[in-house]
Amino acid sequence: MKKNRIDFMGFSIDGLTMTEVLETIKESIAQEIKIKHMAFNVSKFICARKDEFLKESIEACELITADGEGIVLGASFLGKYIPERVTGIDLMQEVVKLAVEGQYKIYCLGATEKVVEETVKVLRRDFPYVQISGFHHGYISEQEEDAICEDIKASGAHILFLGMPTPHKESFMKRNFEKTGVLFCMGVGGSFDVISGKTKRAPIFMQKIGMEWLFRLWQEPGRLWKRYFITNSLFALLLLKQKLRGLWREDGRLSG
After folding, report:
1. The model's pTM
2. Can you give the pLDDT at residue 251?
3. Please, what are the domains in the chain?
4. Facing residues of 135 across strands?
């Protein structure tokens, strides 16, 4: 499995391109090597600093990619190289193509019943040969998880998409991955909402310049203002502290 793992302020990230990520997933599934994928962004970084179980859940993943432009730019600021961001929804759609080519079965778990049903309809429309072996909404308790895992395993799914928010998808993945019997599990966050049409994705030009967050903020200001302003400000402060720490040697002299 291809890796280029770097340390980013105490967290691991695989500095891979979309092509390299897909090659890794394809090879792993073909060889029946089980892997969990995690899309890593600024919000998740901030949350995991205060939530040890979330951090453990992230670190337990065999494949961790930079989902947000903030992580890519932040790594560059600290002198570390991540070639590009690998957005969760783009990777999900590429994995669906991979599943069609390899005749792998997919199970979708997450969002509301209406949204996940519509997501499956859209996937079947856009990818006529895709095999969706099952789906279920994501509003389940811990006590219901064993039954859901049995359903996923009985469906014969090779790939599991988790359309849940953080930290629920990370917790579910860490607790239940082995029970599901799938070869590849990926947390896709709000991707079901976008695919189903519940929310719109930013125009291509905004995606390319790393301003997709602004479009999302415009759509859901009440829910996202704290995430994008307070969280991003804290992230910038932590980056600056890390940078300054790296500039000074242990003897108190300027390094370099």
Report:
1. 0.88
2. 45
3. 5-213 (3.40.50.10700)
4. 108
